[in-house]
């Protein structure tokens, strides 16, 4: 069973979430330290060296195989160098493009921005790309000054193939950029959701603890009222016995209020002691029965001090409003993984409404909603001169156990 965070930890967590200065994003257009820039540049350079080295090796291997089939053997490494030399412009393009995108991620996310970047590179980079190829071809013939005629002699197919290489390289780099940006945003969104859920959980736990702290003085107030009634009736022996019983009840309430859950068996024992205290006040007017309990139910975990406010609510709105008797029944049933609890009391002649804090039903319903959400419910109904409170909640067995005082 997960232990509830202390109010101090919850408050610290809330303050850390609401008052921590905003941190600049790790990516985008923010300035990074030189060491980070150098590390990113080395990473991009290494990745591109590996990818383009592999592409050139595969291309050279294919050409070498074709030459061997034609009976020509000029060696593998000259072919590899030719491939590498021809792809230096594309290598430079991909390195520069990846560095630009890593520094300006948010700027190139829209389709118009990507199209604009592609058009700019087609106008500025691609002519240089073709000029480089013409220059290397002229250098192979020992006449660098003839690069312009070499460029003009290139056929349309060569221009098409090189433009396809340029477009393909641009598309691959942009696809990787968009994918990485999507992964980053997904991770940031997930982290934000987890932070919000953690904050909501801390706030709900803090709220639940506040309700438990409110139940504790509420219970003490009502128990002291019972002792006060015994004292006013001049039943001194009963009053002393009631004070001793109250001491044991308070020890349980103090321990239980620090836990998220207690065993149903412990809660039943506490309710029996509480009813024994009330019998000292009401005498034979109070008739109570526990029905349907089985050893299998003893270890089921329920919220602490769940049943006592409902019992007290039944007594306050029935016995305290007339001089007759009441028939209080607590029925328990286990259906699969669901625990059903029904608390009913007879309705006698009603006198004036009994003033009080009235925390029983409202607090119980709110505590169940906080702990179990839609998996638990509380319904009330009045029929056939009986008032019914029906609880349904998950039947989880656990190790929560309160040591005897």
Keywords:
11 helices; disordered N terminus; alpha+beta; rod-shaped; single chain; 405 residues; three-stranded antiparallel beta sheet; 8 strands; Heat Shock Protein 90; 2 domains; five-stranded mixed beta sheet
Structure description:
With 405 residues, this protein is of the alpha+beta class. It folds into 2 domains: 150 residues, no CATH class; 201 residues, Heat Shock Protein 90 (2-Layer Sandwich), CATH 3.30.565.10. Helix content is 62%, strand content 12%. The strands form 2 sheets. It has a 5-stranded mixed β-sheet with strand order 2-4-5-7-6. The radius of gyration is 40 Å and the shape is rod-shaped.
The residue-averaged pLDDT reads 79
Question: Which segments are poorly predicted (pLDDT under 50) over 5 or more consecutive residues?
Answer: 1-31
Q: What's the main sheet like?
A: 5 strands, mixed
The CATH architecture of the largest domain would be 2-Layer Sandwich
CATH class of the largest domain: Alpha Beta
Helix content: 55-70%
The CATH topology label of the largest domain is Heat Shock Protein 90
Strand order of the largest sheet: 2-4-5-7-6
What is the number of helices? 11
Strand content: 5-15%
How many strand elements? 8
Query: What count of structural domains?
Result: 2
Task: State the end-to-end distance.
Answer: 22 Å
Radius of gyration: 40 Å
């Amino acid at each position: 069973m997960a232990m509830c965070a202390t109010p101090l930890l919850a408050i610290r967590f809330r303050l850390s979430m609401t008052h921590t200065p905003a941190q600049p994003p790790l990516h985008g257009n923010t300035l990074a330290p030189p060491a980070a820039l150098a590390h990113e540049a080395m990473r991009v350079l290494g990745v591109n060296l590996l990818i383009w080295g592999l592409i050139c090796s595969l291309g050279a291997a294919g050409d070498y195989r074709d030459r061997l089939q034609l009976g020509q053997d000029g060696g593998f490494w000259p072919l590899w160098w030719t491939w590498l030399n021809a792809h230096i412009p594309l290598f430079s393009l991909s390195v520069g493009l990846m560095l630009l995108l890593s520094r300006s991620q948010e700027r190139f996310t829209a389709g118009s921005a990507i199209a604009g970047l592609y058009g700019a590179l087609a106008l500025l980079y691609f002519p240089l790309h073709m000029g480089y190829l013409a220059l290397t071809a002229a250098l192979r013939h020992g006449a660098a000054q003839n690069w312009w005629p070499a460029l003009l002699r290139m056929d349309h197919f060569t221009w098409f193939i090189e433009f396809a290489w340029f477009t393909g390289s641009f598309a691959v780099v942009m696809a990787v950029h968009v994918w990485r940006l999507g992964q980053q945003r997904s991770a940031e969104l997930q982290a934000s959701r987890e932070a919000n859920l953690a904050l909501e959980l801390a706030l709900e736990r803090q709220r639940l603890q506040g309700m438990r702290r409110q139940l504790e003085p509420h219970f003490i107030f009502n128990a002291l009222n019972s002792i006060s009634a015994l004292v006013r009736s001049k039943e001194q022996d009963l009053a002393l016995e009631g004070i001793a019983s109250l001491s044991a009840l308070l020890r349980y309430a103090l321990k239980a209020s620090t836990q998220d859950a207690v065993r149903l068996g412990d809660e039943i024992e506490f309710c029996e002691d509480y009813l024994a205290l009330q019998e000292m006040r009401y005498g034979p007017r109070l008739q109570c029965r526990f029905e349907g309990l089985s050893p299998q139910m003893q270890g089921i975990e329920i919220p602490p001090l769940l049943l006592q406010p409902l019992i007290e609510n039944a007594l306050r709105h029935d016995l305290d409003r007339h001089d007759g008797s009441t028939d209080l029944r607590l029925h328990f049933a286990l259906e699969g993984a669901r625990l059903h609890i029904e608390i009913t009391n007879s309705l006698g002649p009603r006198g004036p409404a009994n003033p009080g804090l009235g925390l029983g039903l409202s607090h119980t319903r709110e505590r169940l909603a906080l702990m179990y959400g839609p998996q638990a419910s509380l319904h009330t109904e009045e029929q056939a001169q009986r008032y019914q409170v029906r609880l349904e909640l998950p039947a989880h067995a656990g190790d929560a156990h309160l040591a005897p005082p």
